[in-house]
Amino acid sequence: MGIKTAYQGYQPYSYLEAGKDYEPFSLEEWNWAGEYRLPLDENQEERVRRLAKESVIISLHDHLVRFPKNMTEKEIGDYNRSGRNVSDYEALSHSCLDCVFDNMMDGLNTISSKWGWKWQDILHDLGMRLCDIAHQDFLIHCRTTEDILRAHREGKIAWVAAIEGAAPIENDPDRIDILYGLGVRLLGLVYSEQNALGSGIKEVNDGGLTRFGKVCVERMNKVGMLIDISHCGPQTALDAANFSKEPIVGSHVGARALWDSKRLCDDRLLKAIAEKGGLVCVEAAPHTTMTHTANTHDLESVMEHFEYMANLVGIDHVGFGPDTMFGDHVGVHHAFAKTLSTKVILGDVSYKEVPYVKGMENPTEAMWNALRWLVKHGYSDSDIQKVLGGNALRVLRQVWKA
């Protein structure tokens, strides 16, 4: 069903010799959980095909890495330490994406330390990925909104380098400039644990955006770096929304009114982001955007969060950041529960664990099913095109200024 006509079969790191230049790993099939498509009638199917071709479709948050079949902490750790995570170009060729914000290793970036988030590791991860991208012609290293429009025209995908947490910049705001110069266009202020900029969602106390945090927000505004507050503590996130002169995003969030998890945003924060012209994008990583309606996690619960946020802040301020990957996402959470602070973040609300998020399990199927759900539920063409990418383009033009 893919419409990405420019893919010519390139395989990651094929310019090198496996076993000689790097250690190969046995990787999971990208569609290991099956390929789910929300059922539609013939007229709805035709509308989906038309909108997929006409619309600019953007994911504000995903992980394009394909993970090992053996989902143990050691195997994933060895895979990450090898420094060559695999981006699944072939799987992406079956998607409807025109642009994806790729957060790479991020919280699992343990090349030199089991605690992750080291400056040299971030640069290593970014450099390796850019080297692979330089050897192929399907993904475009995206720095401007014109790159997104070009990808849409040419049947390609605009790849945006993004980093979920700013801990690696330590106490040096000039590192924001360095990341921007290397092509990074989105930076999360905090990833769950407190850093020099502010507090994360796992902290008991949230002191808000620090003085250094304000320096960094100001610098990001100046260089044109999109600010993300998805893992910030509520006061830190609210301070960022109020202090920033440019729109900010919650690139992968949900409504805490529907599920009482620290990982989600309360109404006040959702409104504050929208009031500054920003965007809140619905999350789909396992056991995040659940709801009490069904007490499970699947396409329907994800879209319940979408509708709640759209009704609260308006259709012009919502989008999608599914936060998916290629491989067993629940397995990653199990293997790195301590590093990712999964139990602390999800809280004490009881729920039945799902093996995967049906309909939203990987970057290829997630946006297809979001589009199919919107068509099935009678959204207008205009509103569908806004939430799938139009709203994001508006924010990016304003923040990136390009």
Describe, in plain words, how this protein is organized in 3D.
With 402 residues, this protein is α/β, with parallel strands linked by helices. The chain has a single domain (57-400), classed as TIM Barrel (Alpha-Beta Barrel), CATH 3.20.20. The protein is built from 15 helices and eleven strands. It has helices at residues 42-54, 73-81, 89-92, 119-134, 145-154, 174-181, 211-223, 234-243, 267-275, 299-313, 329-335, 337-340, 342-346, 363-376, 381-400, and strands at residues 58-62, 65-66, 86-87, 99-102, 139-141, 157-163, 184-188, 226-228, 249-253, 279-282, 318-320. The strands form three sheets. Strands 1, 4, 5, 6, 7 and 8 form a six-stranded parallel β-sheet that branches. A three-stranded parallel β-sheet has the order 9-10-11. Strands 2-3 form a two-stranded antiparallel ribbon. Helix 8 packs parallel to helix 9. It is globular and about 55 Å long. The two termini are 32 Å apart. This is Membrane dipeptidase (Peptidase family M19). GO terms for molecular function: metallodipeptidase activity. Pfam families: Peptidase_M19 (PF01244). It comes from uncultured Anaerotruncus sp. InterPro entries: Metal_Hydrolase (IPR032466), Pept_M19 (IPR008257).
Short description:
One of its GO terms (biological process) is proteolysis. It contains 15 helices and 11 strands.
Structure keywords:
single chain; alpha/beta; TIM Barrel; three-stranded parallel β-sheet; 11% strand; globular
